[in-house]
Amino acid sequence: MTLMRKLILYFVAALVFFSIGYFAFASFTYSQGSRTGLLMKFSDKGYIFKTWEGELNLGGVTQEGGSLLNNIWQFSVLDNEQETIDALNKYEGKRIRLSYKEKMRHFPWQGETNYFVYKAEAVE
Question: What is the chain's Cα-based Rg?
């Protein structure tokens, strides 16, 4: 084999190895849990990749005077979570509990944030 063919072969092999490693790293769940708050916004947005994005107002109280704060948490929902998407569309403007998984990295077609919601339920 010529030197050029060897270099191309090594480059392709390194690219495949890097891609597999990045996919495994991006699929790793860093943390998981739930958050409760008022669902402020939920929409399908994007120029090239349409993704489901939302905002949850977690609220809060300041020490001086006890006034309310806006503490906004942004999240994404994967396209294959149709039951969750339907629930979030139904609960917009209501108090809900969201179960999520935080990923180390994400791909552009998955969403804008590292927080991916997989379950939504109303809180009385």
Answer: 20
